[in-house]
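Protocol step 6 of 9: fold each sequence in the batch and record its structure tokens directly after the sequence line. For illustration, a two-sequence batch is reproduced in full.

Sequence one:
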Amino acid sequence: MARYFENTTVFNFSWDQVALGYWRRYPNPQSSHVLSEDTWSRYVKDGCLYTKRLLTKTNRVPKWGERFFNAKSVKIIEESIVDPEKKVLITYTRNLGYTKVMSVVERVEYRPSGASQTVALRSAWVDSQVFGFSRAIRAFGVDRFRKNASHMVNGFNYVLSNMFPRQVPQHTVTHTLKEMREAAAAATDRAKANVLSSVNRT
């Protein structure tokens, strides 16, 4: 029976920014394992954008896993649906080859959360059909997927931050400077008061 993994990520960027940045995720400092990405097909139907891409990624495995597969890279199929009217981006990914050893199917749904945030619900199913080792391989697959998901989020945030630098509103800057001036003035007044108090005592 496949192992299931789920987590939720909040990106501090609008849905439009996330949907645009999704296509520019690579390269980033966390994506050295992504060797290539190629668009297989792309078309618009009923106002939605459908895309299928082929990704090639490195396939590092622990020593014990080399007895089952020793491929240096693995092909990943990525399918996505973008609905700009409903503001929903859904992606599906699955590995090609060695699926009997370990298959990973991932679904991510991006939806807006207010005007400036986007919530991503990530679900994954990890399975193995290797007799006698399937449970251990599934556990390993879920653990590695959990770690990779964290890297993916960090890498995507890096891309979004570079595409859409966060600008502090002018009124916030003014307010902050005003507070700093007031705090500095208050500190000066306290210092003067302490000096006068010391002089009076002497």
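Sequence two, same batch, same settings:
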Amino acid sequence: MEIPANNQYGLKVKHHHGVCLARNPKTGVIEHHLPIPQAENVFGNFFYYDSDTRGTIFVIKSEKGYEILKLGDQNWRPLQPDFRKGQPVLKFKDNDREKLLFFYLVRTPQQQGTFDLEISCFDLLTEKYEKLRNFPRNIFCDVTKLIPFYWESDPAIAIGELSKEHGLRVLVMKNDYSWNEQVIEICSPFLNQHLIPTGIIPVAFVNTLLWFRYRKHNHRNIEYCYDTILGRVMGSKEV
């Protein structure tokens, strides 16, 4: 379970050669010089600006887990509790408050060797966690294969299971944290025969278009745009 950070329109944190910078990816302009994080490698990051307090917050994902920094602080701090390194995380808005959703697997004490999915909500402004306890159980056979991704332009959050036999079966989280089940049939022979068996993952669903991401052997990512109405791949791009 892994998904890239949703920071397409925010600032990008770069850390190399003992320098940490926040750069605008559209203009290339360096907006801030930041303290050096504990991590050696930054794999992804989130940027948050609160218009009321005019506070700027960065969260980075690294080989050490997640670290947070409020602009003006002298040091990065590890997010508490200390989540595992490979844990997927998505950013979303809840009543104009920016929050992060952490998805992680826990072993079920009742059945040895099986897992359950837990979801924690982290408020970027207050830095407080809330565990979501209403995620439907017994919907998916194997929660280790579930993939969280963005749904529509809100963006809402969805978590789904992709298979050649059943297409994409998802639970979509609504604004009141309730869940709605939907199934998207994958009619494309190209996706079914070549990409789904090799580990392609959904990353976003917007206006009937479902975006998949596939990691090539040269470690470059390529995204495919699938039209759920026409039932075919409309194009692709390297990211």
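Proceed to step 7 once all outputs are recorded. Observation for sequence two: Residues 12-84 form one domain.
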